[in-house]
Amino acid sequence: MDRGKELVEGSSRSGDPPPTPSRYESQKRRDWNTFGQYLRNQRPAVSLSQCNSNHVLEFLGYLDQFGKTKVHMQGCIFYGEPEPPAPCTCPLRQAWGSLDALIGRLRAAYEENGGSSETNPFASSAIRVYLREVKECQAKARGIPYKKKKKKCRRDDDSTSAPAPHFP
To answer: What's residue 154's pLDDT?
Structure first.
């Protein structure tokens, strides 16, 4: 009877399988394994301790061949068209949002697998710059302007300065 009570109440036994990982955790593990395989396939192979932002950038370039997002080149007649009326020969690339999410998962996986946050190649400024450039390039190619968020104006600590006049 105790066994039935345990199953009904949901208490786990040592022989029970671990809970199913979330979709995010499963994807993060797949991404981490894919990146590890990419490093091992390099000639010569690259160990995780040798990995730097250049390896990450090369990996992102490698992934572009599997992309599904049409990114019009500057010479294309559909460059800047949000909805082109006909097909063209421009390449398929990884979408910016997919790359951004991938880097976020790999950044977390790196630290979960023993990497230091100080040496995390996925958190480097080179990766942030690359992602920003991809975002801007893809937005222009689709004709959707990328607008930077406006920074809030900070007032000087000098209380004697008058506010700027407002002209309609």
So the answer is: 52
Q: What are phi and psi of 62, to 5 degrees?
A: -60, -40
SS (H, E, C) the chain: CHHHHHHHHCCCCCCCCCCCCCHHHHHHHHHHHHHHHHHHHCCCCCCHHHCCHHHHHHHHHHHHHHCCEECCCCCCCCCCCCCCCCCCCCCEECCHHHHHHHHHHHHHHHHHCCCCHHHCHHHCHHHHHHHHHHHHHHHHHCCCCCCCCCCCCCCCCCCCCCCCCCCC
Segment-wise mean pLDDT, segments of 10 residues, the chain, 168 residues: 45 70 95 97 93 97 93 92 89 94 97 94 97 93 66 51 44
What does each C-alpha distance from 78 to 64, 66, 97, 108 come to in angstroms? 20, 22, 22, 38
The number of C-alpha atoms within 13 Å of 116 and in the hemisphere containing its C-beta is 5
